[in-house]
Amino acid sequence: MSGAANNDGGAHVDDKLEPLYESLSQDGALGTFEAFDETLNTLTKSDIANAHHVALRQMAYEVLHSPDFIRLVN
What we know:
Blueprint: H1 2-7, H2 19-25, E1 32-37, E2 42-47, H3 51-64, H4 67-73
Antiparallel strand pairs: 1-2
């Protein structure tokens, strides 16, 4: 995930993202979200946006809450 830190981190932004990271950062790269309104009987579809940020947050959460990491801290 060096692409996120080195290219998309906010404090330092490079002109070019790594191809894989760039493809994951595109809206819709991980699919679409669908919501059905029963009152209007309509289905709304929208691209999943910023999924790369969600994935990074989840990975960080899992590392920080892992038993091995907690043992290192203690």
